[in-house]
Amino acid sequence: MIRAGAIAGYLAALLAVDTQVDLSGQLVLGALTWIALLVAARPLPVERRAQVAVVICAATVAELTGSILWGVYSYRLHNLPTFVPPAHGLVFMAGLSLSEALRRNARALVITAAAIASAWGLLGLILLPRTDAAGALGVPLLLAFLWRSRARTAYAGVFLVVAALELYGTAVGTWRWAERLPGLGIPDGNPPSGVASGYVWFDVMALLLAPRLVALTERAWPLRRRLLPGTGRV
Model pTM greater than 0.85? Predict the structure, then answer.
């Protein structure tokens, strides 16, 4: 819980400071966030670090697609801030830390996440200032994973962290979601309820691909040692 709180505090401060700086300031924030990521990841086991790496890669591709190419949302300076990729790794670690801290109350954590996602999706359709039809489409995805997946507790923890971060980030003006999905015209919230649900896909890829990444690295490392001169091996 301490780790999750420390990461959440850093991210909150990061987004607040970002609203006050220019592009050069963002570069500094990016460097600091990469350092924070490396420090936070250092005590983690190898497979967990691999999961963080997969999340960063998947999230960065999604950011470039959703923000820069499609224009579903935009950052304050209409770029992809350099702190965003490492921040995704921190968000993932915070969510896992939260789920691990509450593992004795795993059922309550999952139910809470499902209830919040369902209520948010429903309110976006009938009550919130901006109709959130696009966001509501993502909620069933999260509910399905919370119901069926063996990693449901991890998904619930990450969902809660992402939901809080989205509400905070849009409130302070670090990024803003388009009122309608470009090219589709579907009304979208700011933030949409389904965006945190969509983050589940990053987690799924991390949990599935990280063991393979570790295995591939372990196979490649002895091969590299055999090819290096002076190792005493042929």
Answer: yes
